[in-house]
Amino acid sequence: MNDLRSLSWQELIQLMEDLGEKKFRAKQIYEWVHQKLVQSYDEMTNIPKSLKEKLKTRVTFYPIKEVERYVSAIDGTTKFLFELFDGNVIETVLMKYHHGNSVCISSQVGCRMGCRFCASTLDGLTRQLTVSELLNQIYWIQKTTGERVSNVVVMGTGEPFDNFAHILQFIQMLTDEHGLHISQRNITVSTCGLVPKIYELAEKKLAITLAISLHAPNDTMRKELMPIANKYSIDEILKACDAYILATGRRITFEYSLVAGVNDKTEHAKELASRLSGKLCHVNLIPVNPIKERDYERSARESVASFQKVLEKNHINATVRREMGADIQAACGQLRKSYRDRQKGDV
Ligand code: SAH
């Protein structure tokens, strides 16, 4: 699919050459799209009409349509529901922290990984998001809220490593000096652990943060929570992480969603600590957000605290993720799911 927002700087220069246009037009157009964040050709006021007409016949410039927006009364977290050109909907979240604004984007329409506690995967994968659609979630939010986005986390609906090529180009364009120029260090990509892709990413030697959704200290338990564990063992994941750390020097984040009575006992914390011992890493504990389709329950506050204590006693750095937007269904995939149920008249 041809989408103006997906074209790299070099591709746009090539396009101008093909059209017999001057090179500086590429710079102007790239700035309209990636710095001034416009949604249509018509907004590009210094581009001649004749060139815009020519471009319109060759390259589509898809806008994104905001269909719903919810602002949390508790912490200002804002959740957006966007409709794409083909009618599919995705969700994106803006979180405001002291250190800056962070946007959590979706990487796919739906997901095929099947994690048991996750709402995003209940209806499977519909399609990949294009580079343009990955970028535009951030562009729309920065433009319409007037809030500068400084951090991006690829932790919304979807498995980013299942949309790998687009994610790499997205990172390249998001960090490009001709675009929003977000620092690689301010980008986090979270994966359920597709091992070959961890090695591929290591080779790129980017300064982004890699987050691995572990959620269990051993393979037996992980298989109960995450079907992908049948394909890759925790040992294989940890070996790939070592290669990643060696190649990039970057600390890895391990995400661990705590489910009451399942993976939150002291023995699990000890087992996890022994497996991560000596690694350049950090554990992010997330009390699970219960979804109505499953009967998993969130761990009690005391269990979360004691789990964290055990990790720290064993020299594993651990934090508990602060819950944000609790009043606006801000957890992974919940808003999209409820919107689709409402459209179907299920609720
Ligand atoms: N597919 C990627 C990124 C999307 S999910 C991944 O697996 O990492 C982002 C994080 O939220 C993952 O750690 C995921 O396991 C977790 N998550 C999903 N649903 C959740 C829920 N209901 N409660 C707590 N964490 C959840």
Question: How large is the count of helical segments?
Answer: 11
Mean pLDDT: 95
- List SSEs in N-to-C order: HHHEEEEEEHEHEHEHHEHEHEH
Distance between the termini: 35 Å
State which percent range the strand residues make up. Answer: 15-25%
List low-confidence stretches: none
List all distinct small molecules, including ions and cofactors, that are bound in this structure: S-adenosyl-L-homocysteine
Structure keywords:
single chain; 347 residues; alpha/beta; 10-stranded mixed sheet; two-stranded antiparallel ribbon; 36% helix; binds S-adenosyl-L-homocysteine
In summary, what is this structure?
The chain has 347 residues and is of the alpha/beta class. The chain has eleven helices and twelve strands.
